[in-house]
Amino acid sequence: MDTSNHYSMNTLFAQLGLPSETEQINQFLSEHRLVDNQKIEQGEYWTPAQAAFLQEAIAQDSDWAEIVDHLDAALRH
Prior knowledge:
Blueprint: H1 9-15, H2 22-31, H3 48-59, H4 65-74
């Protein structure tokens, strides 16, 4: 039985209903940012459903939490 974690930035973007090809993700990251004390779900570019998903992933330490943390870091660079 395969129990490895298959979550990636591509699968996260697909889960969020966003274009999920690497080039599209890079474009999104180049166009969107978070400021120092802003939580990831507070980005003005998320829909309410996307923001709720991101907030719950972190709050519940779900399987998505690690890749959401990576997205958070990428939005700060």
